[in-house]
Amino acid sequence: MALSVPAAKLHDFADLLRRAADDAAEAHGYARRYGVVARGEQGLLTRIIDLHDELAATVTATMGRLEATLRASAGDVDTAAGHYRASDQREEARMRAARVRAAER
Predict the structure, then answer these.
(1) CA 28, 30, 35 angle in degrees (round to 5)?
(2) Contact at 8 Å (CB) between 88 and 7?
(3) Per residue of the chain (105 residues), what is the pLDDT tens digit?
(4) N or C: the chain end with fewer CB closer than 10 Å?
(5) What is the pTM of this model?
(6) Rounded Cα–Cα distance for residues 55 and 96 (Å)
(7) 3-state percent breakdown (helix, strand, coil) of the chain, nearest 5
């Protein structure tokens, strides 16, 4: 079994996560801007069961958490890519040195 992790592909994935975080930020802003509805403008059923404010707060908070999670994940994936790249470079140097020693014999 072989494990291959191209660091560049991890950076691409981190970029995808950042774009998703930007989308979540836009949705979060939209929910903050348009999620507030004056009590008199809410529908009758919504006023009776008093659901809108709780639902709007849940959606807004969820979008905020989603954005934060995606941004943090992007940074973590970039960090992992750096570790993989450094490990690959160390192994490459070790193998190069072994080849040089073998050629000198």
Answers:
(1) 100
(2) yes
(3) 666 778 889 999 999 999 999 999 999 999 999 887 777 777 777 777 777 788 889 999 999 999 999 999 999 999 999 998 888 889 888 998 888 888 887
(4) N
(5) 0.72
(6) 61
(7) 85, 0, 15
